[in-house]
Design a protein that fits this description.
heterodimer; A: 241 residues; mainly alpha; 8 helices; 0% strand; elongated; B: 105 residues; alpha+beta; Arc Repressor Mutant, subunit A; three-stranded antiparallel sheet; 4 helices; 3 strands; 13% strand
Amino acid sequence: MTKQEYLNELKSELNKNVVADAEDILGEYEQHFLFKLADGFSEEEIAAKLGAPAQIALQFAGIPGEKKAKGGKKFFLVLWLTIIGIFEAMLYGAFLSFIVALFCASLVPAALGVEFIAGLNYLNILPPMPYSGAIVFGITLLAASVILVVFAIYCLAYLKQMVRASLRWRKNLLGAEALPLLPMSPQFKPKTRRALRTILLWAVLIFAIGFVAGYAILTIYTHSFGFWHALGWFGYPATVY
Amino acid sequence: MNIQYKKGVLELCVLSLLAKRDWYGYEISEFLSQKIDIADGTVYPLLRKLKSEGLVTTYLSEASGGPPRKYYSLTATGRETYASDRTDYLNFAATVQTILEEQET
């Protein structure tokens, strides 16, 4: 008997015995064939070892089927899931806007940092300071930009995983067979996670050192802890620069 | 060996396997048919019966390459049933052995 002949006969025998979930059962026997075929058995050998379809079907007879949400119950489930879905979509939309804003926000310190380092003052937005301070603050601002980008990537991964977990949960409620639920927290590959963590650590370190160093340089340069007065920022009259 | 003996204890064997870890259907069928002379197809109705009695639950797990596998896992009820059935069987088997050995000598 070939695989197809066996499955056909099993199907008709299952129907004869009014067995519940016949499709499910046939799927399991089909998988058995696939596993055995992969091990190098012929379809005839596998069918012979499985036992006669009539015998198998008899063993299934009388086992009650699995409970599934049907008819009216299913209608309310779908309605309920739709209502939750609307609120979920609003939440995801707001979160996505926040993430886009984060990415945009990361461009600001990046642009300022490049201006400081390159010694430019495009649009005349930089406060006056000596170049020794400007280059340190430039690097600090680039580090701040990196921190924002990493945070945005983390948020994006979070959003993606939330949507996936929610979809999996819905599928489980509506489908017959349950797939394992997914965690809500971001799932990075170990390599990616390590890389992100290293980048973030370095960025925070550079940001902290840069901030302190920049402050120190300008303090020494102006002989004043409130160097912004001496440099003439925020409309103060400049006394040094 | 009489087929009726095997069928009775097959259920206990399946519970015993599942008490150690979760197995997928084909794995159980392969394991048992190598040790006990039964038709490969016998295990699947048994698993379905155990599930309908609430002794085991199933979950799908994605396997690398190929369709998701249906894993079987003991429920709390399944564990209790296995523990008490196991004791019953071992006592029963010991008694039978004693009787048979007495008759021989």
